[in-house]
Design brief:
One of its GO terms (biological process) is pyrimidine nucleotide metabolic process. It is built from 10 helices and 8 strands. The model has no long low-confidence stretch (mean pLDDT 95). It has a 5-stranded parallel β-sheet with strand order 2-6-1-7-8, sandwiched between helices. The chain has a 3-stranded antiparallel β-sheet with strand order 3-4-5, covered by helices on one side. It has helices at residues 16-27, 34-47, 55-63, 92-95, 98-102, 105-119, 131-135, 149-162, 169-185, 207-221; strands at 5-9, 30-33, 67-72, 75-80, 83-84, 124-128, 141-146, 198-201. The N and C termini lie close together (7 Å). The chain has a single domain (5-208), classed as Rossmann fold (3-Layer(aba) Sandwich). Helix 3 packs parallel to helix 6 and helix 8 (149-162) packs across helix 9 (169-185). Bound molecules: cytidine-5'-monophosphate. Cytidine-5'-monophosphate binds at residues 12, 34-35, 38-39, 98-99, 102, 128-131, 179, 183.
Length: 222
């Protein structure tokens, strides 16, 4: 069978990574979490204590960064410059600053090139914000996954509680809205549904139901 490129985009906490991981597993494809790449660059920039909107300084960070994904039992571990940062890149400090870094042209160019290389052979499920529009405009399958802000905040809240993080629901809602706003209004590769993407509203669906829908879409293509 042809090795497909599958793009899954959408706003923050819509369930993209959970679903993308399962779809990749079902098909025996590679899963690529592009959000983790933007988070990794943000982490490295914060380590160096540079202004997060300073393009020139960010270019220096990109010059000697290595980002590695290593498969593990519960998903994958992320290494930046050989330091394990899997949990750290999910902390509020990163989540609340990543959109600033992700709006810089040099950063997007660097990561887009890298993502295109990773996806070039196909057999990939890639999730992010601009995969269907910019990174893989010719992807075989494009899904734009959405859910209400309330539902997304609630999912994040439950996930946080299981990790011992206790941010109030109302704050999570504000943070998610703020990040979506920044990601949707930036001038380069904003978060927007590709014209040919299939919109999938997961507000009232279980993970299992979403998987069934997506597998049907893929079967039709294959
Ligand atoms: O998917 P995740 O929430 O981990 O993404 C973190 C941030 O990285 C997003 O809010 C966005 O600013 C940026 N991002 C992006 N383009 C992508 C993936 C993520 O700009 N393809």
């Amino acid at each position: 069978a042809k090795l497909l490129q599958i793009a899954i985009d959408g706003p923050a906490s819509a369930g993209k990574s959970t679903i993308a991981k399962l779809v990749a597993h079902n098909l025996n494809y590679v899963y690529c979490d592009t959000g983790a790449m933007y988070r990794s660059v943000t982490w490295a920039a914060i380590q160096k204590d540079i202004p997060l909107d300073n393009e020139l300084e960010l270019e220096k960070v990109l010059d000697d960064i290595t980002i590695k994904f290593v498969p593990s039992e519960d998903g994958q571990q992320v290494f930046v410059n050989n330091q394990e940062v899997t949990k750290e890149i999910r902390m509020p400090k990163i989540s609340n600053n990543v959109s600033t870094v992700a709006a810089q042209v040099a950063v997007r160019k660097y990561l887009t090139d890298l993502q295109q290389k990773i996806a070039s052979a196909g057999g990939i499920v890639m999730d992010g914000r601009d995969i269907g529009t910019t990174v893989l405009p010719d992807a075989d399958i494009k899904i734009f996954m959405v859910a209400s802000v309330k539902e997304r905040a609630l999912r994040r809240y439950k996930e946080n509680i299981s990790k011992g993080i206790d941010t109030p629901l109302a704050i999570l809602e504000q943070e998610i809205e703020k990040r979506d706003y920044k990601d949707s209004t930036r001038s380069i590769s904003p978060l927007v549904k590709a014209e040919d993407a299939i919109k999938l509203d997961t507000t009232n669906l279980t993970i299992e139901q979403v998987i069934v829908k997506i597998m049907k879409i893929i079967e039709k293509k294959a």
